From TrEMBL:
Protein name: Polyhydroxybutyrate depolymerase
Annotated keywords: Carbohydrate metabolism, Hydrolase, Polysaccharide degradation, Secreted, Signal, Xylan degradation
InterPro entries to which the protein is assigned, alphabetical: AB_hydrolase_fold, FaeB/C/D
Keyword Repressor annotated: no
Compartments reported by the entry: Secreted
PANTHER family: FERULOYL ESTERASE C-RELATED (PTHR38050:SF2), PTHR38050
Domain of life: Bacteria
């Protein structure tokens, strides 16, 4: 029997084929779903939904996010694929969308429903991750769906969020002060919004991982802490100056943050 907060898929045999798409508003939306090889329908799993940026595909970020091998708990990962604009760029919303009604909020809803019905998910442990444009979308989603999302983690994302959030959310915000693509002012604004969303005061303490200069807002036992990490990784492994990058070790740090949340 499933745990108290297990989804409808708990106790049911999984589908014969791992899903590769969901239907959203009459349109087929593609995704990559990763189910553990030792999946058991009697054991609620964490769910991590990870969003790619403007210039990378979901297959590419699955590789460089490097989340899966660092999961401390049984976890299902989903990497959605965005639509594209007229110039062929990845987008997670339509140009005229209001911040509280971004088009692909419905995509996330459909993913959560489909995975919850087919697999055993701990509905108290649903997480979202993103980089760049994907982080901006995840930041908005964690506000609009704060009633179902337990934790957020993003690198180099902006902050154009709904005025009112559906509930508090634990967050790990990583942003390079020298990022020219998404200015640090966006990250600082997001930090202020998350502190308000979670009802936290502005005092902070050093926290793991120290190599990303992280500071924690909220006490050690805070249910919904905010980690602010003004990382200093300016150059890629090849030596190119690129402060907007996803630094080595980020996937491990994010999964460690999620695992410590009750």
């Amino acid at each position: 029997m499933a745990a108290q907060h297990g989804s409808a898929g708990c106790g049911k045999p999984p589908p014969d084929a791992i899903p590769t798409s969901v239907a959203v508003d009459g349109r087929t939306r593609n995704l990559i779903a990763v189910i553990p090889s030792d999946y058991r329908p009697d054991r609620p799993h964490d769910l991590v939904v990870a969003f790619h940026g403007r210039t990378n595909s979901n297959a590419e970020v699955r590789r460089y996010f490097d989340l899966e091998r660092h999961a401390a708990e049984p976890t299902i990962f989903v990497y959605p694929e965005s639509l594209r604009d007229a110039q062929g760029r990845n987008i997670w919303s339509d140009p005229a969308d209001a911040p509280e009604k971004l088009r692909d909020f419905s995509f996330f809803d459909a993913i959560l429903q489909a995975i919850s019905e087919d697999y055993c998910i701990d509905r108290d442990r649903v997480f979202v991750v993103g980089h760049s444009l994907g982080a901006s979308f995840a930041n908005s989603l964690a506000c609009a769906r704060g009633d179902v999302i337990r934790g957020l983690a993003g690198v180099g994302g902006g902050s154009s969020r709904p005025k009112r959030c559906a509930g508090p959310v634990a967050a790990m915000v990583m942003h390079n002060p020298r990022d020219a693509q998404v200015p640090i002012a966006e990250g600082l604004r997001l930090r202020r919004e998350l502190l308000s969303q979670d009802g936290l005061v502005t005092g902070s303490e050093p926290d793991f991982p120290q190599r990303f200069n992280c500071r924690r807002y909220g006490p050690e036992n805070e249910e919904n802490p905010v980690l602010w990490c003004p990382l200093g990784d300016d150059r890629t492994a090849s030596g190119r100056f690129y402060p907007h990058q996803w630094p080595a070790g980020t996937g491990a740090a994010i999964m460690a943050f999620f695992s410590r949340l009750g």
